[in-house]
UniProtKB/TrEMBL annotation:
Protein name: RNA helicase
GO biological process annotation, one example: germ-line stem cell division
Reactions accelerated catalytically: ATP + H2O = ADP + phosphate + H(+)
Domain Tudor: 3-68
Alphabetical list of InterPro entries matching this protein: SNase_OB-fold_sf, Tudor
Source species taxonomy: Eukaryota, Metazoa, Chordata, Craniata, Vertebrata
EC code(s) of this entry: 3.6.4.13
Amino acid sequence: QVYVVFSEELKCWCRALVQSVWCQADGYQLSCFLVDYAKYCCVPSKSIRVLPGAFAKIPHRAKKCRLHCTKPLTLHIDYCENTAKIGPAKRWDAAAIQHFRKLLE
């Protein structure tokens, strides 16, 4: 379900999908995906509202997607043998993500 959350970063109300909820000392925090900005953010529970029916029917501008058959790689360095090889990784590293975003721009 799509909700409306107030993004402190963007200084506006945005449509969002709630990813997870966790409890903190001062209340609940929500991890959200902003469907019109393709950004993730965390907001307090007091900053979430139910989306009015007419606005829920507007299509999202951003969609979560994956690159087909593209797996993350990383550079494995062996200091003992003084070699470096590219091999599979569990996650994309920050440099690869930054490079990909520059290519998209």
